[in-house]
Design a protein that fits this description.
16-stranded antiparallel β-sheet; alpha+beta; two-stranded antiparallel ribbon; Serine Threonine Protein Phosphatase 5, Tetratricopeptide repeat; 577 residues; Porin; 14 helices
């Protein structure tokens, strides 16, 4: 009996004591909410966000305040983050029309009109100011898409439920437009924030409040494949050789823009790239090296003498001539070096060899573009590129010549967006002239490219590309062994043949990108290139390439990568192996 009483006493003491000594629970401070609402009404969204978060630390289940925090993030230029909060709390919030209305506005800001219609329709079932705004927004959306019956429905609903609403005059204007069978070009929906302007003002990632952008990217690039090499000891005259390449990438850049001056829009930027290049042989050497730490350092596969550093300065200018006609130009100056003065190479290498200049590349792409039916866009351009190779001068080349017999490289690009299907299709045809210091290497490349991008949702996109090209070399090469590189008989002479080289090839690419946060992306891309020659098989080459990247960019990845990829100059040129 005593043991039972003792046990009950101990249990009671523990239960009471645990409550007595437990830390006090966090209590919400109403003054935080009052301050947050005050800053929100004054459009000081950074401060409003700070106070909303302070209040919610003690009132985590206040769904309506979570709604307001989400909208504050939206006006601060963070629509993706705002949308995630709104979707999380939509079922618990008592202000459902408020929640659904702003979900719809955010989808519109992200250019997903079809997705926007779903929450806007839910909000339209209520009878309050957010329902009125939702009905009006749906009427404008359907009007812009020329869905007459749907426009009539929403216009009629607005007149019935909100006859004295804020937008009644515009609703009546839409009705007159439908009756007269005319179209209102300047019709606009509910006011939406300029997300870029908001980001520059309020984001902690912003460097200063004027338009600018920056990015950081790292990743791994792996290539493998095979290429044929001449070998007269073989019955076919060639032998197949496998190759691999590894590249550890570290990129970064900064830019200004868009800058508006006298009808022109411009961007300027600087990119820095580090490519740590190695291959399987160096990996194996490193693995098999001794336990001596000196050997590990000497044979480490990513070494400073294998490092390529690239500096790029570029500018993009475009000018609007009419509502449909544009002209512009993209220019870039690139300097490539090998090695680094800050990162020492293997012992025994000279310092100047570790910082050697590899090449200098100039690029100019003047263009003229025409925008027409449903934002379809056709662009014609010249491709003026010049490479001065320091280490191998014969690899210096250019794609144009202004001599007595002018030579130009050019292409045409046709872009077709289908926003309802969340698809963008791009077709391109081009002809590039590559003129080398060694005239035997001169060739003309003609090709076609077709790419498709599908946005599964605001965060996940997939893309695919297919292309075909033909390389016509300008100067035939005389070969006594024949164009097929057959072994030469030692007992008889043969008159040399004039062998014209014509390569054909195909390129296939597919990729997946995940914008898991507004400023961050994970992506993977696979590329297959197959270069064929029907008669001279020593030029055949097959390559498989996989690139995985992590990117952080401001104000958003899609916008910044557009400039980064253009500055990378992805011309389909021959690789030097």
């Amino acid at each position: 009996m005593l043991n039972f009483i003792t046990r009950m006493f101990i249990i009671s003491f523990l239960l009471v004591g645990s409550k007595a000594f437990a830390p006090p629970s966090k209590q919400s401070n109403p003054s935080y909410l009052k301050q947050a609402n005050k800053y929100f009404s004054e459009k000081k969204f950074s401060k409003a966000i700070s106070y909303y978060r302070k209040y919610l630390r003690g009132s985590r289940r206040d769904a309506n305040t979570w709604n307001r925090l989400a909208v504050a993030y939206y006006y601060a230029g963070l629509p993706v983050k705002a949308l995630s909060y709104l979707k999380k709390w939509e079922k618990r919030s008592s202000e459902k029309s408020y929640n659904q209305f702003y979900q719809g506005l955010i989808y519109l800001s992200l250019n997903y009109p079809d997705k926007a219609k779903i929450p806007l329709t839910k909000a339209a079932h209520f009878i309050n100011q957010y329902a009125a705004r939702s009905v009006y927004e749906l009427a404008v959306l359907e009007y812009q898409e020329r869905n007459t019956k749907r426009v009539q429905y929403w216009v009629g609903l607005y007149r019935q439920r909100f006859p004295t609403g804020t937008h009644i005059q515009t609703i009546m204007r839409i009705e007159r437009s439908l009756a007269d069978k005319t179209f209102i070009n300047d019709l606009k929906g509910n006011p939406r924030p300029d997300l870029d302007e908001s980001l520059f003002k309020y984001s902690r990632y912003s460097l200063y409040p004027k338009p600018h952008y920056w990015f950081f990217q790292t990743g791994y690039d792996y290539s493998m494949g095979s290429q044929n090499e001449p070998d007269l000891k073989q019955p076919t005259g060639v032998k197949e050789a496998a190759f691999t390449a590894h590249n550890l990438m570290v990129y970064g850049g900064i830019g200004l823009g868009p800058i508006y001056t006298n009808g022109a829009t411009s961007w300027i930027g600087y990119n820095y790239k580090q490519d740590w290049i190695t291959n399987d042989t160096r990996y194996q050497t490193f693995i098999k090296s001794s336990d001596d730490m000196t050997d590990y350092i000497s044979y480490f596969p990513f070494r400073a003498d294998l490092l390529e550093r690239t500096h790029q300065l570029y500018g993009d200018l475009r000018y609007k001539i009419t509502d449909s006609l544009y002209v512009g130009a993209f220019g870039q100056q690139e300097f490539k070096f090998i090695g680094s003065e800050y990162i020492p190479g293997p012992e025994g290498n000279k310092v100047d060899q570790n910082r050697a200049k590899v090449s200098e590349t100039s690029l100019l792409i003047p263009w003229i573009g025409f925008n027409y039916y449903k934002n379809f866009y056709t662009l014609g351009y010249l491709y003026l590129r010049k490479v001065l190779s320091e280490d191998i001068p014969e690899h210096s080349n250019k794609t144009y010549s202004f001599s007595t017999t002018p030579v130009m490289s050019y292409g045409i690009n046709h872009r077709m967006p289908f926003p309802q299907q969340k698809i963008e299709v791009v077709a391109e045809a081009f002809q590039y002239e590559f003129i080398y210091n060694d005239y035997l290497e001169d060739y003309t490349r003609m090709g076609l490219l077709l790419s498709i991008k599908y946005d599964h949702n605001p965060k996940i996109s997939v893309h695919g590309l297919a292309g075909y090209y033909q390389d016509q070399y300008q100067i035939p090469i005389p070969r006594q062994a024949g164009c097929k590189f057959e072994p030469v008989s030692t007992h008889s002479a043969r008159e040399p043949e004039q062998c014209t080289r014509v390569d054909t090839g195909m390129i296939i690419q597919t990729g997946l990108s995940w914008n898991y946060a507004q400023f961050k992306r994970l992506a993977i891309k696979y590329t297959y290139v197959n270069n064929q020659n029907a008669t001279q098989t020593e030029y055949e080459r097959t390559e498989h390439n996989i690139v995985a990247t992590y990117t952080m960019a401001f104000p958003n990845v899609d916008r910044v990568m557009r400039f980064v990829e253009r500055a990378s100059d992805i011309a389909l040129t021959k690789k030097d192996h």
